[in-house]
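Record type: ASSEMBLY
Status: queued
Input:
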Amino acid sequence: MADLELPAGWEVLDDPTGETVLIAREPADDERPDRFRANLVVTAVTVGGMSFRDWQAGTDELLPRVLDDYLPVDLEKVDVGRHSGGRRLAHHASPGGEALTMEQWFVLVDDVGHTLTATVETWRYDELADLCAGVAATWQPGGAA
Amino acid sequence: MSDDLLIALTLRVTGPEAQLEHRARIDRDVVLLDAEVRPGQLQELSFPPAFLTSALVRLTRMRPRRPDDTGPDFSWELELEWDGGSRRLAATDGPSGIRLTDPVDGSERPASNTEVYRILSTLLP
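Status: finished
Output:
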């Protein structure tokens, strides 16, 4: 289980597999059951001795190849938990053609790359950005001190 | 956005060598964009309004800045008008980042790409 505090009412999907530590999504909207549900995904990947810079350079190369219409918007160094890490903001399109905004917080701890990814519909990003950043602020990848 | 609302959008992007003016008409279902890809050369594009934010990111050339970024500053001015309302946003952008221009007194203040993206994602009434 990832070390973070989810918003009240968010649903945690059972049994994440592989490098995925946590998948959580916002409550369903009964009036619009087909609506894209904002979600949070935590992954932990052993990087095999790579530096933080090389790990993230690889991520920057990978994302445009795996996400449709990928468009980087922002990238900055930020502290994540007790460690120096980073944050990126990007647009991409879902397989269903929705315009999505992806915000990631990432950090390398003891050769494990931890990433928290929030994905929301772009027209709701301003509404949900502070909530997602609040979750990121509670995240302690690699465990609390 | 209401069913019958029609929005006129103008985006002027000024660089050291040229000014490009992009125009769009936006309704509930579609953005019809005339993008000026070179001075005097227009390219017609259409896409759902949900993709307006990413289109504006591309047209304003917003991107993550790295410490070794170089190149000239440029500016952009965005206007949206519809029956009963309007919005205006202006900025300069360059290696040192974005500075938003106050529409009333012309003063500038620094803004992160994320802040500007949040504004762009909420432009439509």
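Annotation: The helical segments of chain A are 52-66, 125-138.
Annotation: Residues 63 and 70 of chain A are 7 Å apart (CA to CA).
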